[in-house]
Design brief:
- With about 60 residues, this protein is mostly helical.
- It has helices at about 5-10, 20-50, 55-60.
């Protein structure tokens, strides 16, 4: 292992700050994922209240 490789290994992985555009894109992605999760939980809650089996639904959604 070279001296530079050893130095990189000792200091951990390289990190950098996100650009403003990358932060905005990350925020959009997180907002979309959060909205999907809330909708999915509401859908599952509604199905559970109606007495429907959620496990069958999970198998069908894998397609």
């Amino acid at each position: 292992m070279s001296d530079q490789e050893q130095k990189n290994q000792d200091s951990g992985p390289a990190v950098r700050r996100l650009t403003p555009e990358e932060r905005a894109e990350l925020r959009r992605d997180m907002a979309e994922a959060s909205a999907w999760a809330r909708a999915e939980l509401a859908r599952r809650r509604q199905r559970k209240e109606c007495g429907l089996n959620i496990q069958n639904d999970l198998i069908e959604d894998d397609s």
